[in-house]
Amino acid sequence: MGNFARIILAVCLLLPGLSQAHNVIGGVYAIGNTIEGEVGFSNGDMAAEGTEVTVTDAAGNELAKVFTDAEGLFAFEASQRIEHHFFANLSSGHVLELTLPADELPETLPGGAVVGTAQVKPVSANFSGDQVALQAMIEKAVAKQVKPLRQELAAYKEKAGLQDIIGGIGYIFGLCGVGIWWRERQKEKQREKDNASVS
Amino acid sequence: MHIVDGALALPVLATGAALTVAGVAIGLKKMDYDHLPQVGVLSAAFFIASYIHLPIGFSSVHLILNGLIGLALGWAAFPALLVALFLQAVFFGFGGFLVLGVNAVNIALPAVMVYYLCRHGISSPSPKVAATWGAIGGAGSIVITTVMVAFSLMLSGEAFLLAAKATFVAHIPVMVVEGFVTAAAVLLIRKVKPEFLGIDEERAYG
Fold first, then answer.
1. Where does B10-205 sit in CATH, by number?
2. Cα–Cα dist B5/B9, whole Å
3. B62 and B53 in contact (C-beta within 8 Å)?
4. Could you tell me the residue ranges of all domains in chain B?
5. What is the number of CB-based contacts under 8 A between chain A and chain B?
6. Residue A93: which of B3, B59, B91 has the nearest Cβ?
7. Can you tell me the ipTM of this complex?
8. How much of chain A, in percent, has pLDDT values that exceed 90?
9. Please, what is the Cα angle at B58 between B147 and B8, to 5 degrees?
10. Which residues of chain A does B176 touch, with a Cβ-Cβ cutoff of 8 Å?
11. A9-33, pLDDT tens digit by residue?
């Protein structure tokens, strides 16, 4: 029996890449024309390499299919300034839908019908190539700095605290209390009825 | 184990919700109201169990406990698990509200099946036999649940074998752990509080 248990335990330890976490989390961010995104589980595991992410526009027309790399990251080169939807299926009922609003993409892209942020600024004539390159560099640098913060924030949002646990248990016990109270009332009524019929 | 919103087709969601309503109705009708605190305690245990991840090698697992809940509660597992699943969706963001019905059926129906399959076994006079049936109940409920999860995904368009395999393999450690935990729980409860499992003391030790 002991040996058997040990073998089973060994098998468990050797099974790689198991994802038991419940919540699929992720995010998409625009860096210049490139939309970068990540998919993973709330326990810190990232999506398996090669997970397919389908890119669609707001109407659901498929634009492309991209695949995640070893760190659960994927990238998509936007060619239009429209709302992008990303859909990933991590099997076992784990799906994730992400949306990138059009106004996060640079205004230099040919816009689809962008409603609300329709203020298209004309690119000024002295907007030289250097400046464009500089701007792209700045965007990239900021994105790189902000990324760990984003990840930490996403993980923090997913984390349930002691308050949630105690709150949940409280609700369950409260429900039981209501059930017992209701039950007692029924019994009380029954007793009164019985007494009334006896006397 | 919890399917999230957006993964399933509408007819599947509707069927799951209808089955859950039926199950809860049967559960409430069959429930012995003197056992209400017991239902609450097990509901709370399930609520917590999914939150506590135990590290196993590369990954972590969490207990589901639907086998044990089924053995102890029978049909009352439906209301107990529905309440717990609802609160998990509210507090932890596990699963979702639209899929609540499907998730409840996938987890509670195996519990009821285990109740009918293993009830007799766990009240056997021999502790060894009882523990074995407890382990079968604990692991078996997970097996049935994974098959049902895969089935729900298949009805929504995913390839059954692929989904079933992925879910099944991912839950093998859970089955093992759950088997041990349920067997141990059955042994303990038989000793200290046999009426908790609806076991007649005379029969168990006669």
1. 1.10.1760.20
2. 10
3. yes
4. 10-205
5. 127
6. B3
7. 0.74
8. 1
9. 30
10. 8-9, 12
11. 444 444 433 334 456 777 787 777 7
